[in-house]
Design goal:
- By secondary structure, the chain is α/β, with parallel strands linked by helices.
- Helix content is 31%, strand content 22%.
Amino acid sequence: MAKHPLLKEVQDNILLEKYSKEFGTPLYIYYGYQIKENLQKINSALQSYFDQYQIYYAVKSNSNPNLLSFMHNYLPSMGADCSSPGELFAANKAGIPMESCVYTGNYESKKDLQSAYDSGCEINLDDSTSFQRLKKIGVPNYISFRLNPGIGKGRFSQIITGGKEAKFGIPKEKIIPIYESAKKDGVKLFGLQCHSGSAILDEDYFVKNTQLILNTARRIENKIEQNLSKISIGSGFGIPYSDDEDALDLNNVFCKISQVFEDFYGRDKSDWPILCIEPGRSIIGNTCILLAKVTGIKESYKNFIGLDAGMETFMRPALYSAEHRIYKLGTKHKIVDLPVDITGRICENTDRLAVNISFPRVVEGDLIAIMDAGAYGYAMSNQYNTRPRSAEILVNGDEYHLIRSRETIEDIFQNCSI
């Protein structure tokens, strides 16, 4: 177990106070050094065990083009996993070549598929009906299909994306005829993709999931009489959200996965398909502090600390009952004995960022740091109660700059004519 990598930023709070005065709150603050460290760890672990691999950053976790550009400049081989035309736009705006991107949709409209096909990216389809819609637009040279391996795992039930309750992927019992049909329709090269859950900290699950994927891959290869070019194991690589959790040892994870590849494809790595992964949370999750300000304190049937950031700013706690480390700025604070709920200003009783936690005494105007807000933070933020969305800044060494301006009320209504 280790302290949060950004804890020193909270304890040495002079800069955070400076950012709040310059940009206001709530404010998403990303740290470039942590982004680089995360990318380096993932890339080095893959490089140690695979000769051929591809990292596709999951744009859905955070689509700010400035962040995508920062990542791509640091690791030019990084591509992007996109799940909407908007995410393709963000990747292109960031300078990531479309041939380094993959479109992974579900229940795609013809317009979605047209955008993916026209972009020149690779396409990963969720169902045979998706391919029937795509055929009317065009038949790509390469295609992959998403496997539902029959099992799934995730930190919350809502983010389990494999198994019998999942809306994603093609059951392993039904997937082979789809490859046969696509080959008859002119597809020349194939891959196989599977993403069965998110925020997983269990190393052994990735081994089990890879074994299931390769079992299906072998059956597909035997039936279509050709090797698959790429195998994507998706992502799901979790991060610690509390002090009592250990981080994934990615070196160990990819070592074990490489052993599974060796069991299936032999020791000659040139015979292995390209291993693809689609990490989002493990790249951007722990790189961000959401900075908020105390707006009110209430002693009711419970004790409440109200912030200028609520479920509209940061949806994960309300959506999943997700728990995040939350700190008062500074180094030494006495924890009160009575628990508090930390809430926002939204007219919903689910508007809680934390429930029944011990917290230092605060007064109105104090600054609060919500940790690990980089993944699915701003990306899920919204304008409920007609609250404008936050600003975002990127800190890189001694420099920092605004990467998204704070919305205004006028911005919200700019497309409404009356």
